[in-house]
Amino acid sequence: MSFLTRSSLKNRLILSLATLAIVALGLISMGSLKQELMPSLQAPMAYISAQSQGLAPEEMASSVTEPVEQAVRAVPGVTSVTSTTSSGGAQILVEWSFGENDEETLRTIRSATESLKPSFPSGTEVVVASGGAGDIPAMVLSAGTSGDQEAFGDALQQTVVPALKGVPGVRDVTLAGQETQRITIDLRPADVTRLKVETSTLGPLLESHGAALPAGQADSTEGPLSITVGSRLATLEDIQALSVPTPDGAVTVADFADVTIEKVPAQTISRVNGNPSLTLQVMPSQGANVVDISHGVNAELDRLAPILKADFVTIFDQAPYIEQSIHDLSVEGGLGLLFAVLVILAFLRSWRSTVIAAVSIPLSLLITLVGLWWSGNTLNILTLGALTIAIGRVVDDSIVVIENISRRRGDGPLTVDGIVASVRQVAGAITASTLTTVAVFLPIAFVSGIAGQLFRPFAVTVSIALLASLVVSLTIVPVLASWFLNKAPKHRAADAETAHPADSETSPDAAPALEAEGTTAVLATPAAAAAAAPAPTLASEAPSELDEIHTAPDRLQRTFMPALNATRRHPVITLVASGLLLVATLGMTPFIQTDFLGSSGQASLQVVQTPPKESTADLVAAAEPVEKTLGKITGIADITTSIPIPTPGTPTSITYDLRLKDGAEVAEVESKVEKALDGLPDSGEIELASQDASLAGAGDGIDLAIQGNDPAALRTASDLLEKQLADADGVRSVKSELAGEQPVLRVKVDEPLAARLGFDRAMIAKAVQEALAGTTVGTLMFEGQERDIVVRTPGAERTADKIGEILLPVTPQQTAEAQKAASDALKAKADAKANEAKIKAENELNSQINTATKQRAELAGQIGALNRQLAELSAAPIVPADPLDPNDEAVLKAQTERAEQLSALQGAIEGAQSGVKAADEQIKALRQGRTDAAAQQVEAEAAEAEAKAATEVTGTAIPLAAIATVEEELTAPTITRAEGERQVTLTVTPEKGGLAAASRAIDKAIAETDLPAGVTFEQGGASAQQDEAFSQLGLAMLAAIVLVLLVMVATFRNFRGPLVLLISIPFAATGAILGLLLTGTPMGLPALIGLLMLIGIVVTNAIVLMDFVNRLREAGANLDEAVEHGTRLRLRPILMTAAATIFALVPMSLGLTGGGVFISKPLAIVVIGGLVSSTLLTLVLVPVLYTLVERSRDRRIAKRAERRVRREERRAASSEASTDIFEVAADRE
What we know:
Layout: H1 2-10, H2 12-32, E1 42-51, H3 57-73, E2 78-86, E3 89-96, H4 102-114, E4 125-132, E5 139-144, H5 149-165, E6 170-176, E7 180-187, H6 189-195, H7 202-208, E8 213-218, E9 225-229, H8 236-240, E10 243-246, E11 249-252, E12 257-264, E13 268-272, E14 275-284, H9 290-308, E15 311-317, H10 318-348, H11 351-375, H12 381-409, H13 416-439, H14 449-484, H15 491-505, H16 510-517, H17 528-532, H18 545-548, H19 555-569, H20 571-587, E16 604-610, H21 616-631, E17 636-644, E18 654-660, H22 666-677, E19 685-690, E20 702-708, H23 711-725, E21 731-736, E22 742-749, H24 751-757, H25 761-772, E23 775-782, E24 785-792, H26 800-803, H27 812-875, H28 889-952, E25 964-971, E26 974-978, E27 981-990, H29 995-1008, E28 1016-1021, H30 1022-1052, H31 1056-1061, H32 1064-1079, H33 1085-1115, H34 1119-1150, H35 1157-1228
Parallel strand pairs: 7-24
Antiparallel strand pairs: 1-3, 1-4, 2-3, 2-26, 5-14, 5-15, 6-14, 7-12, 8-9, 10-11, 13-14, 13-17, 16-18, 16-19, 17-18, 20-27, 20-28, 21-27, 22-25, 23-24, 26-27
Helix pairs in contact: 1-13, 1-14, 2-11, 5-9, 9-10, 10-11, 10-12, 10-34, 11-12, 11-14, 12-13, 12-14, 12-34, 13-14, 13-30, 13-33, 14-30, 19-34, 19-35, 20-32, 20-35, 27-28, 30-33, 32-33, 32-35, 33-34, 33-35, 34-35
C-alpha cells in the first residue's frame, strides 16, 4: 500500500485540491441527508382488518376470519397467521419470512382476500395494510378552543387540514374527534309498501342528483354558454322533492320518508388537560423528511392559531427528539474528538503531530457522510452513533503512521524516501487491522429481523469511516507530515535527558543488575556508543528494524518492561492466571440483566385505563379523577385523553398521553405517576408504559401464547399462569387478553318457518341492522361538506322485547302467498255470482228451448198431415173416368193439376222437415252455448281475480318475533386464533432490564403449574425477538471471527500467528462483561453490536504488535529480542490507539447529553471495557503465547536441523570410511 503514499507525495497539489473537494462535498451531504429517529423498518407482515356489523364473535370467526386465515396461509412464504375476532370485527396478522418479496407477497395476500368477498356476509369490508413504519404519523396534534366546538371543527376541516396537506412531504392529514352530520332518510314502512318504492335505488339516485352534469356549450350573441343538466341538491327540501320512479309512476321522497340532518357522535372523545379538543394526525409521504415536515407544520400552525383562536398542543412529534438526539450525539462526538486529540497530544507531545493525526477524524467523517448520502442512508441515532463511535477508531491508523514517522525520523529532516519507508513498515499492519474491523460487519448483511434492519446502516457507516481513515492515513497524513514535521521536535532534548539513566543501565557493568531485575539489556555493549550518538536520519538511509531495537527506552517503556519480562519468565503462571480471570468473568454472566433495545428515553409517557363500566357516560366519569390526579404531578406539561366510544364485545380502554416538561426525568415522573394512581378508587385497571412508538414494534413486553382447541382449558391455563406470574421475580405486571364473558342478544331463527316465508339469516341480520343503525347508501356534497346518506326505519329500540317488534321486509314468497290468497277469495266471490247468473241464463235458455221444441212439434204434426194428404192425393183417381184418351186435353189438364198438387204437398213436407231440423239445431245450439258461456265466464272471472291480486296485493310485513326469538346470553367478547387453533395471550411486562428474568419466570411457572391437557405454549414479543436477534448475532460473531482469521492468515501467511492473536477476543469479552456489571447496563442488541465491533478492534493492536515482531525476526533478531523490543517499540502506538478510542467513547458511555443513550451507551461501555482488558492482556499475554509457540516451533526446527546435520555427518562418515577402505585395498594391490 506504500505506492499510495509515494503517489500522494509526488502529487501533493492534486491531493490538496481533492481533499478540499471532499470537504465541500461532505458539508453538502451533511445538509442534504434526511434526518429521522431510527432507520426505516419494513416488517415482513400485513394487517387484515375485517368489519361486518351485527355478527357475533362466533359467526364472525366462522364466516369471515377462518376463510381469510385459510386463504392467506396458502400464500408462499407466509410463516404465521394470528387473528383476533370480536363482535362485528376481526384483526388478522400475517407474517412471512425475511428475504421474501414484500410487495409481491402483499399483492398475493390482497388477491386472496379479494377472491373471498363474494362468500362473505353482506356488508363485510376487508382492508389489507402493510406492516411498514410508513404508517407511523410524523405528528399528532391536539386542537382546542373556548368557542363553539362544532364551528371550530368545521374551521379546522376547511382551513387547517388543507394548509397542512400543502406542507412538503405530507401525505395526508386526518381530523378526529369531531361531531359530524349526516343526512337521514327515515322510511315510513306503510307508505313504502303502498307506493311500491324500491329503497335500494335511493343511493344511486341521490348521488346522481348531487351534482350538475356538464353537457357541452351553446352559441349566443354574447359568446359561448356552458350547458349543464340538472342542478345540485342544496337543501333538505330539494331532497324531499326528489322524484323516485315506481311501477305505478313517480313519487317524491317526501311521500314515503322523512328527511333530516342528524349529528353523528365522534368515535373518540378527545380532551387536553381536561378541556374538549380535536386530534390532527399528519402522515408523511414515502421518503419524506419528518424534521422538515415538523418545521413546516409548526410554521402553518403559528400562522393559523391567532386567526382561529385555537390552542394547538403537540401529542407526538418525532422531530424534536430527532434533532435533540442528533445534537446530543454530535456534542458527545465533539467531546470524544477533543479527548482523542488530547490523548494523542499527551503521547506524542507535539502539536504538529497531533494536528496531523487528528485531521484524519473530520476527513474520514466527511467522506463517510458522502458515502451515506450516496448509498441512500439517513442521519439517525444509529448512523450518528456509528460516526461517534468511529471517532476514536478512525484516528488509529493515522496514529500508527505519524508515530512511526516521528519515531524513525530522529532529529533530521524528512525526505520522501524516508516517509515512504516509515509508512511501508506499518502499511501492512494497519491495512490488515482495518480490514479485520470492517470484516466483522460483513455478517450483519445476513442478519434478518429487526436487528439486521436496525444495525445494517450502522455497519455501513462504520465500514465507510474505517476504510476512509485507512486511505487518509496512507495519503493525506504522509503529505501533511512532509509539510509540518521538518523541524526537530523540542521534546527530543527532554527525551535525551530522561534517557541518560538508560545509558548507565545499559553499560557493561549494569547488565548483570538488569538481568537480576529480570530486564534484558536494551543495548549490547558494542552499541553503547551508537546509543549516545544521534539516531540516523531519514535524510540518508532509513534505519532498519534491527537498528531500532538499540534505541533507548523512554519513561513509558521503562515502566512497562518489568511487567512484560516478569510474565515472560513465568509463562505458565501468566496463562493460568489469565484463564482463571476469563472463567471467573464468564461465570458472572448470569448476573447481567438483559433487554432487547431498551427505552428510547423520549420525554413522554402513556397511561392506559380500563374502567369497570363501559358506557360512554361511565368512561367520561372515570377519566375525570385520573386527569385531575395527573394534573397535580410536577414534570407533566400536557395530558391528552382519548376516550373511545364503546363497541359491543370489545373491552374499552382510556388512553392518557403525557408530554413531559423540558428537563424532566422520565424515570422520576414515571415513579410519581405510579404512586399517584395506585389505589385510585373506582378507576378499574391502570397501566403505565413509556411511549416508544419510534421503535416500530421493538417493545419490552413478553407475549405468552397459550394455544389449544378447548376454550375452557385455555381459560383455566390462563388464570393459573396469570396468578403464578403475578408475584414472580423480574415481572412487573401480567395482563390476560381473555376478558370475562359479556352478554349479547342472540336472534334464534325458526329456520323451517323462515325458509317457507323466503327469509335467510343474512336478510334477517340486514333488516335488524337497518332498523337499528340504518344503511349508508352513499355520500352527498351538501352545504359544502361531504355527508353520508343513511336510510333507516325509525322507532326500533335496542331492548330484547322491542327488537322482536322490528318489521321484516316482505319477501317474494310472502307476496306470492298473499296474492294467491287474494286471488282465491276473488274467485270464490266470482263463482257465487257466476252461479246465480248461470241459473238465470239456464232458465232463459230452457224457455227458448221449450219454444223451439213446441214449434218443432207443430212442424212435425204438419209434416204428418201433409204426408197423409200426399198419400191420399197420390191414391185418388184423375177425373174424368176411363176411357178417356190419354191425349185428351182434359185428361192432360187433370194430370197437370194433380202433379202440381203433389209437388206442392211435397214442398210443404220438405219445408216442414227443414223447419224441424232447424228447430233441432236451434235447440242443440242453445244447449251447447249455455255450457261454453259458463266456462268462458269462469275463465274470465279467474283471470280478473288474479290480475287484481297481482296489482293490488303485495303481502304484509311481519315482525321479527313471528319467525325468531330474541334471547340474552353470555359469550366470549373476543376469539383469538393462531395457526388455526384457539389462543389466549398473556402479556408479561418485565422489570427494567429484567427481560431474561421474566422469561425464566415464565418457564418456571409453566413447569410448576398443573395445566390442562392439550394446551401448548409459545413465548413471543420482546423475548422471542431477543432470542432470535441474540442467536443471529451469535452466528454473526462466529462468522466474523472466521473472516478475521482469514484476513490475518492472508497477512501473516501462516496459521500460528493468527491463532495466537485470536486469544485477544475472549479477553475483550472479559472487560465488556465487567463493564456491563459495574454500570448495571443490560445486555441487549447495542451491547451485542459492541461485542461484534470488539472482535475487529481488539485484534488490530495484536496485529500491529505481531507484524513488527515478525519484521524484527526477519531482520535477524532472535525470538527474545524480537518479542521484547517489538512489544516495547509498539507500546506507545498501541496505548495511543486504545486510549484515543476509549476516551472518544467516554462521553457516550456516561450519557452526558442523553441523546440516543439507549443505543450508544451500552455499545460504548462494551467497547471501552473490552478494549481496556484486551489491550492490557494483548501487551502481556500475546507476547507470552507468541514466545511459547515460536520457541516450540524453533525447537522443532532446530531438532529437524540437528537431525539433518547428524544424517549428513553419518553420511559423510560413511562415505569417508568407504574411501578409506578403497584406499587400503588399492595399497594392498
